[in-house]
């Protein structure tokens, strides 16, 4: 009996090591599957919300949510796509010119700067900005990945219990009820997290666009869209969108730059002190350092997709 028990423990450890090696080997595929689960949670949340108003079958509600999503994306492409694409093409040049102006100001105040290092930093920054703007404009190199995530998400959202039950069958019979309860709680937490993120993204993006448009700041629509999209990334997103907004603002003069700083501070004060606390009561409580660490690790390992999925 002792030998049998020790052998069982050894095989558990060997199995864990094998699963870890397999997970590393299949990391990209597993990330796509998880992306499909996150997308399915978004669809499922909309379907459940619609079910409070329309007492129809789940399949019909999923179809309505998907049609509304497609209609919204088509509206954005038709009415704002050309304007945003044009602004996205102009953004890197403005960022580069503003960086050069900032360096000239530093040099005039006695700072010694190596042009080669500065040029390298600017090229890296522009590469990151170009990556974001390409994602915004829909020019994504990994279209197959996005397509797979969408298809997986739709399949999972249409019949979630089928896959949940199938996974439970791989577990010991006495553990299945516990798994069902745990999976239900995980799904509820993920839906709440994503609902809170979407609410914050919408409010931040719309408020930024309106306030910048009122003052006549260039690229107000693009900056509003970037602010909304980057709000999905806590900690990092606000810093990136705020930096872009302020740089573009100073391209129109000192007054406009100061106004952009005020807009950034006001929006994030409202978001941090009103929106986030209200949403947090209904969503999940994640430690900021844990979120930031996960973003750094997932971003290094898997790029933009890993960064987007780090929080969920």
Overview in brief:
This protein is an all-alpha fold. Helices cover about 85% and strands about 0% of the residues.
Q: How many helical stretches?
A: 12
- Give the fraction of residues assigned to helices: over 70%
- Note the run of SSEs as H and E: HHHHHHHHHHHH
Which geometry do the CA atoms define? globular
Going by helix content, strand content and strand pairing, the class is mainly alpha
Strand content: under 5%
Alpha-carbon distance between the termini? 43 Å
Rounded to an integer, what's the Rg over CA atoms?
23 Å
Give average pLDDT, whole number: 79
pLDDT < 50 runs, ≥5 residues: 128-141
The profile of the biggest β sheet is:
none
- According to DSSP, the number of beta strands is 0
Overview of this structure, please?
With 312 residues, the protein is mostly helical. It contains twelve helices and no strands. 84% of the residues lie in helices and 0% in strands. The radius of gyration is 23 Å and the shape is globular.
Index terms:
312 residues; 84% helix; mainly alpha
What order do the helices and strands come in, and which of them pair?
Elements: H1 2-25, H2 27-51, H3 58-79, H4 81-108, H5 115-137, H6 143-158, H7 160-168, H8 176-215, H9 220-230, H10 236-250, H11 254-280, H12 288-310
Helix pairs in contact: 2-3, 2-6, 2-8, 2-12, 4-5, 4-10, 8-9, 8-11, 9-10, 10-11
């Amino acid at each position: 009996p002792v030998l049998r028990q020790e052998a069982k423990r050894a095989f558990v450890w060997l199995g864990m090591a094998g699963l870890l090696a397999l997970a590393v080997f299949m990391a990209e595929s597993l990330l796509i599957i998880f992306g499909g689960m996150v997308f399915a949670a978004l669809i499922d949340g909309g379907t459940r919300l619609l079910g409070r108003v329309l007492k129809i079958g789940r399949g019909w509600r999923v179809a309505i949510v998907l049609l509304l999503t497609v209609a919204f994306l088509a509206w954005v492409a038709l009415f704002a796509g050309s304007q945003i694409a044009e602004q996205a093409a102009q953004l890197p040049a403005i960022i580069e010119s503003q960086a050069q102006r900032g360096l000239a100001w530093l040099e005039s105040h006695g700072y010694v700067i190596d042009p080669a290092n500065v040029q390298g930093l600017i090229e890296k920054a522009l590469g990151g900005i170009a990556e974001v703007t390409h994602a915004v404009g829909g020019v994504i190199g990994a279209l197959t990945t996005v397509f797979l995530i969408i298809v997986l998400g739709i399949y999972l959202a249409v019949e979630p219990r089928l896959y949940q039950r199938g996974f439970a069958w791989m577990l010991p019979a006495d553990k299945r009820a516990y798994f069902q309860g745990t999976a239900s709680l995980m799904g509820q937490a993920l839906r709440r997290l994503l609902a809170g993120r979407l609410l914050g993204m919408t409010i931040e993006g719309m408020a930024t666009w309106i306030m910048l448009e009122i003052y006549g700041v260039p690229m107000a629509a693009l900056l509003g869209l970037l602010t909304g999209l980057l709000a999905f990334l806590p900690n990092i997103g606000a810093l990136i969108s705020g930096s872009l907004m302020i740089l573009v603002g100073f391209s129109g003069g000192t007054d406009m730059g100061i106004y952009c700083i005020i807009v950034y501070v006001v929006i994030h004060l409202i978001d941090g002190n009103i929106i986030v606390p209200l949403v947090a009561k209904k969503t999940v409580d994640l430690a900021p350092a844990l979120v930031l660490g996960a973003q750094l690790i997932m971003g290094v390992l898997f790029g933009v997709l890993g960064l987007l999925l780090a929080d969920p």
